[in-house]
Amino acid sequence: MKKLVRDIYSAYGFNDQQAQQVADTLIYTDMHGIASHGVQRMVMYDHFIQNGKVRVKSQPEIVTETDVSAVVDGHFGLGSLIGTYSMNVAIEKAKAHGVGIVATRNSGHYGIAGFYANMAADQGLIGLSSTNSRPAMLPTHALQAFVGTNPIAFAMPAKPHNFIYDAATTTVPQGKIEVYRKLEKDLPAFWVAKEGDEEINDHTDDVDLDALRDPYSHVGLTPLGGVEEATGSHKGFGLGMIVEVFSAILSQGNTSPEITPEDLQVGPSQSFIAIDPSIFGNPDAIIKKFSDYLQQIRELPARPGKTIYVHGDKEAIAYDDRSKNGIVVDDKTLAEVTGIADRLGVTYGDLTE
């Protein structure tokens, strides 16, 4: 599958390094068990490449810079390439000056935020990344989607594997809704809300994806915490706005309500932060203390039949499983990917072996 993805992006016109980079990003996601943002996303990227929203030949550019910060203009290239470039800038600054903070504008959908945070952790640094998106979240008490899914990712070196927190500030990302629809599964409660006769009601079984993508449809994703302040709705809403500050406001890029899939001159905004733990002391001692702390959590008494995981554990388990057994791609996604390959004249073998 990785070879097929690489060959598809080469056929679009990306150079060999870029095509391999895109394949690495997408397959990394599926290898860690996050099907919503792996090869499932290729059909959306294909649409953007075909309609010109993603410019194959464009290159990201630093437009403002200090020793510890930069603003990057992605010039509407592919989001994963812009994200990798931006995080590498942050990493270089962190290694030289202790901290690197990059705000990026005019980017594209970049996949999972955790990939970029983990780029820093793999080099011994603390990493953070976030991105806004077109409107998807219903702010607390609102009838109109206005804030994006706006995920926040944090990664830090630890033993036996990196700690990685990566979560949308909505209850689930929109991609997960799409996966459930492909599998014809009912949605769990409190993922999506719609306007009822008198108030916003939980909406679980008959979500129209077109309505979900329309900010004026009175259908939207719930913030973390659901639809009521009593359950913490305002917390997910507030976290989503913090993402807007670090991505769109600091870069002077587009905020969520300014982003539409049809406007070819508007793209999401993102942030990339790397911190060298050595500015606080011995990095090995810091990482050991953190690793010990995480292990203490894993060893807490658990409810009968349950296992306590810390962030990154499930992904590490998924990676080990898929390294041995391969990744699982649903039939509809596989048909989408092979359909793209057929259109571009890309050959492939038996993907079910």
From TrEMBL:
Coiled coil: none
A molecular function (GO) term: oxidoreductase activity
InterPro entries linked to this entry: Mal/L-sulf/L-lact_DH-like_ah, Mal/L-sulf/L-lact_DH-like_NADP, Mal/L-sulfo/L-lacto_DH-like_sf, Malate/L-lactate_DH-like
Taxonomic superkingdom: Bacteria
Gene3D superfamilies per the UniProt record, alphabetical: 1.10.1530.10, Hypothetical oxidoreductase yiak, domain 2 (3.30.1370.60)
Keywords from the UniProt entry: Oxidoreductase
Membrane-spanning segments: none
Family statement: Belongs to the LDH2/MDH2 oxidoreductase family.
Name of this chain's protein: Putative malate dehydrogenase (Putative)
